[in-house]
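Example 4.3 (complexes with small molecules)
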Amino acid sequence: MPSHLFAPINLRGLELKNRVIISPLCQFSALDGTASPWHKQHVGSFAISGAGLCILEATAVSAVGRISPQCLGLYSDANEAALTAIIRDVRTYSDMPLGIQLSHAGRKGSTRASWELHKGHGVPDSEGGWDVEGPSAEAFTEGWRRPLALDDAGLARVKREFVDATRRADRCGFDMIEIHAAHGYLLHEFCSPLTNHRNDGYGGDLAGRMRFPLEVARAVRDAFPKHKPIGVRITGEDFVDGGLNLDDAVVFARALKEIGVDYVTPSAGNVAPGMKLPKIGPGYMVHFAEKVKREAAVTTMTVGMIYEPRFAEEIVASGKADMIAIGRAIMDDPRWPWHAATALGERFVAPNPYARSAPQHWPGYAAVHGVTLKTGEGGMGHATRE
Ligand SMILES: Cc1cc2nc3c(=O)[nH]c(=O)nc-3n(C[C@H](O)[C@H](O)[C@H](O)COP(=O)(O)O)c2cc1C
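Answer. The structure with flavin mononucleotide bound is encoded below.
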């Protein structure tokens, strides 16, 4: 039976060849927001992975909106030129759709790259740190910067920054945009009652708290070509008492759908300290996508410890989610989709220069690995252990 995971899906005008999506993955490898040679290899390797879509990392819409000084941005001509050049190169050998996640880190900006956290979270001014901004003037916790609460002019500016970055993303050649409204960054901070203590029309009940993220999503939608899809990474649960829950996610997803958002990815957590995490295991957020899909009637992507092709297949086949985002597993094995296709009995055709990478072409493979190879026509072949 043909695989559901490897069935195509259409997002607005964009046809994805399969439902394996490369999750956005911060690389902390940019200089002043500008992509580096690292990004070239990173995107290049994913571009031949066989995934249906690669969504580039959280990319700041302003220098202040970066998580760390090394974060990727799309707020200057130099940022735009570097990403344009990478996409132009990739297009010479891959037709994989490329997306970009636009983001503003809010009060969680001016922090360190993940591998420098032993030095403490906050980056001092002397090391290139900056004043951060958020919905309310409350720091994440001790050692983090206290943000400036955005006033009306600040909100209008941030919205403009999202619009400008959207136009730049289109000019770069990105096929889609994902808006980051999860993981405790600015748009999530607006949504969550734990971080939004405003007294104006952008705070208060859920409708008030969602208002700014929805305005941003609408502005991005309006600024991006009609045929190109946009998605939003949202929060299924804050995992902190009094925080956002799955019912809130359904309401947010419905409102996003109404303004033309093509899919949502419910993720979770990291907006405030004191998380009470449930049992974390493979697919621990699939039920978020399932409920949001059912109750908001929106296309969903799920994410979170989905490592096994058959598990990914089961999630899509049972209709719990429409697409599967893979993060760490695809950094570990950038050919994950080739191997998943093989495991699910699908034919995969490697790019011509790598055509002889299929195990049936490896002299001595069977003897070394103790396997019998059943060769398919082209593609990766099938290896079965005796
Ligand atoms: C190195 C790294 C960087 C990440 N960067 C981002 C990011 O830029 N945007 C985002 O929404 N999630 C980011 N995440 C979260 C992943 O996209 C994904 O949701 C998470 O790792 C769970 O999926 P996995 O178990 O398949 O890795 C990052 C995760 C890792 C490990």
